[in-house]
Amino acid sequence: MAYDPNNIFARILRGEIPCNKVHEDEHSLAFHDINPQAPVHILVIPKGAYVSMSDFSANASEAEIAGLVRAVGKVARMAGLDEDGWRLLSNIGVNGHQEVPHLHVHIFGGRKLGAMIAKAGL
Ligand code: AMP
Predict the structure, then answer these.
(1) Which atom of ligand 1 is nearest to the CA of 100?
(2) 121: confidence class by pLDDT, cuts 50, 70, 90
(3) Average pLDDT value over all residues in the chain
(4) pLDDT of residue 120
(5) pLDDT of residue 116
(6) Which of 4, 43, 50, 56 is the pocket-test mutation for ligand 1 (most atoms within 8 Å of CB)?
(7) 110: CA distance to ligand 1 center in Å?
(8) Which residue of 39, 54, 62, 81 is most buried, as measured by CB atoms within 10 A?
(9) Is the CB of 92 under 6 A from ligand 1?
């Protein structure tokens, strides 16, 4: 899948639309999800143009990959999630129900999150 430079997260990265920023560094940006599914629901995205984790893992530089992973851990610690635990999730493609075609990882926390995959809808 080709990268769409007009996807909503690309527009956030260009400053064309606002976000509720949590963290930013050379390679990544983290912001609160606009439709939170848990008391804490933060998205972490790379600044580079990658469609998904599949694209990113194949084509990003070592520095970009390290930057995103370091940012995920930092954001979770900043949000105070480590003591009680949290969940990391990234949806990929149609079966993964990915809605925004710019790689993002979801950080969920602040309550017991239940089973990993809901049975409803299967
Ligand atoms: P996914 O299904 O993994 O692609 O999830 C996309 C996520 O992006 C959803 O949880 C949306 O609520 C979230 N989202 C969409 N637009 C925005 C936005 N402008 N700011 C923050 N989060 C957004």
Answers:
(1) 4
(2) low
(3) 96
(4) 59
(5) 86
(6) 43
(7) 19
(8) 81
(9) no
Q: Any idea where the domains of the chain sit in the sequence?
A: 8-109
Taking residues 27-37, what's their average pLDDT?
A: 98
Mean pLDDT of 59-63: 98
Cα 100 to middle of ligand 1, angstroms: 7
Residue 108, pLDDT > 80, answer yes
d(Cα 37, Cα 18) in Å, to the nearest integer?
Answer: 20
Q: Which atom of ligand 1 is nearest to the CA of 31?
A: 21
State the architecture of 8-109 in CATH terms. Answer: 2-Layer Sandwich (3.30)
The first and second tokens of residue 53, run together, are 């984790």
CA dist 112 → 87, 106, 116 (Å):
10, 16, 11
- CB crowding 65-87: b at 16 or more within 10 Å, else e: eebbeebbebbbeebebeeeebe
Q: How far apart are CA 34 and CA 37, in angstroms?
A: 10
97 is catalytic: no
